[in-house]
Design brief:
This protein has helices at about 15-30, 55-60, 65-70, 95-100, 110-125, 175-185, 210-215, 270-275, 280-285, 330-345, 355-385, 390-405, 415-425, 430-440, and strands spanning about 10-15, 35, 50, 75, 80-85, 90-95, 105-110, 130, 135-140, 145-150, 160, 165-170, 190-205, 220-225, 230-235, 240-250, 265, 295-300, 310, 315. The chain is of the alpha+beta class and about 450 residues long. α1 (about 15-30) runs parallel beside α5. One of its GO terms (molecular function) is FAD binding.
């Protein structure tokens, strides 16, 4: 008897947003043998705030996990773009139309809530097995890809895993990507963006005596303060009990760091100096960060890859399309990847290695151009936000002024209605179902 697609053995490397979505979406499609290998001992998502855009919510809802995530999130009703130094408003965009237009509101939540919701969804499916504290090494490519699973517990011996399909959702430092590119003789390096980020969480009990900050945390508003080469985006999460700030600034602390270094313990004094010319409201929030708890992230992206797929192996999420945070689409795009892979594999006409490869190429055709277009758009949006004095800044601020009169494009592409249409209006699973036969052929 020939094997059905649902009998395929699927190995997923990495239990981030992309890996968890791959597992859950495949289980929902009836796949019976799904194994997830994760280097960390548990999910342990400390993380910070995360934007839950309609294109993400649509996938999560179909996977049966959106309601629980939504219950802990905050519905964004408006966005305000402000000058960092003066706190004067450059632009204001109402966001209530998003739910009416795309079927889901634009919400924000805690990264732990999103990851936890996906993980809890996975635990309801006995066919998904998690292998924590296990590193994947020596990936081989072929009709039946393999890798060496190395348990962190040294009393356990490494062992070889063989699968019909291997999904490399192993993050921006993906070993699967490195192995694939070496095998194919492709040179694709890491692009240093010369930008870094602080991520800050302020709890409501820290600001009980500050009416201005209480107004922010009790709102349904996202605020972006912009200055030359720097900005801060901020919004409430966790049912308005935490105020999340994410900054972007020139990278000075990683100048001598190796390529492997993506985070460093930051200096509070240095952080305050970076935003020293921003308004008192911002200063008060940054001052609330305890000394010794400042952490800075280096922002890097890859050179675009010519392929995400080789034989029966595919790359997922940050392994193939890491992005700058200026469109708030990093997790959403990894989640779209997982949803598309599950549909493509479920529609396999047979389970030969040739057909598996073609189905994974369908995933690539649905996702690759879209993902890279958004990577480029996020970078462009960041450049527009960080302009210093000069003609380009004057033109940008004219666009912001016109926007206040209801005219023209939004320099902050995250809030631009035309950009939102392209991002939020795209139904990745529907497109995969409709285009599968054409792309598979």
């Amino acid at each position: 008897m020939s094997k059905s697609p649902q009998d395929l053995q699927i190995a997923i490397l990495g239990a981030g947003m992309g890996g968890l979505t791959c597992a859950l979406a495949l289980a929902q499609q009836g796949f019976k043998h799904i194994d997830v290998y994760e280097t960390a001992s548990d999910l342990g998502f400390v993380g910070a705030g995360i934007q839950l855009a309609p294109n993400m919510a649509r996938v999560l809802d179909r996977l049966g996990v959106w309601k629980g995530i939504e219950a802990e999130a905050v519905n964004l009703e408006e966005t305000s773009v402000r000058t960092g130094a003066s706190d004067s408003e450059l632009a204001h965009v109402a966001l209530q139309y998003i739910e009416k237009t795309y079927g889901y509101p634009h919400m924000v939540g805690h990264r732990a809530s999103l990851a936890g919701g996906l993980y809890e969804g996975c635990l309801k499916h006995a066919q998904i097995r998690f292998h924590f504290s296990t590193t994947a090494e020596n990936v081989t490519f072929g009709a039946r890809p393999t890798f060496t699973a190395v348990p962190r517990d040294t009393s356990q011996s490494p062992y070889t895993v063989e699968a019909d399909v291997l999904l490399g959702a192993d993050g921006i430092k993906s070993n699967t990507r490195v192995g694939m590119l070496e095998l194919l003789g492709i040179q694709a390096g890491v692009q240093d963006t010369n930008q870094a980020a602080y991520r800050i969480m302020i709890h409501k009990d820290q600001i009980q005596d500050d009416p201005e900050l209480l107004e922010l945390i009790n709102s349904n508003k996202v605020v972006r303060w912009i200055g030359e080469k720097r900005h801060i985006i901020a919004y409430p999460v966790s049912n308005n009990t935490i105020y999340n700030l994410s900054t972007t600034q020139p990278d000075s602390n990683f100048a001598a760091a190796t390529n492997a270094t993506y985070t460093t313990r930051g200096s509070k004094t240095a952080m305050l100096n970076v935003f020293g010319d921003f308004c008192p409201k911002v200063q008060r929030m940054l001052n609330l960060v305890p000394e010794g708890e400042v952490c800075e992230w280096k922002l890097r992206v890859h050179d675009p890859l010519p392929t995400w797929v080789h034989e029966s192996v595919a790359l997922v999420g940050d392994a193939c399309h890491p992005t700058l945070p200026h469109l708030a689409q990093g997790a959403a795009q990894a989640i779209e990847d997982g949803a598309v892979i599950a549909v493509a594999l479920a529609k396999l006409p047979d389970t030969t290695p040739a057909s598996i490869h073609k189905a994974l190429k369908v995933y690539e055709k649905v996702r690759k151009d879209r993902a890279y277009a958004l990577v480029d758009l996020a970078a462009a949006s960041g450049r527009a936000l960080h302009l210093g004095d000069g003609a380009a800044k004057e033109e940008r601020d004219k666009q912001f002024a016109a926007l206040k009169e209801g005219k023209g494009p939004v320099p902050d592409k995250w809030a631009d209605a035309d950009v939102q249409r392209n991002i939020y209006g795209f139904d990745c699973t529907k497109v995969t179902e409709e285009k599968f036969d054409e792309y598979f052929a």
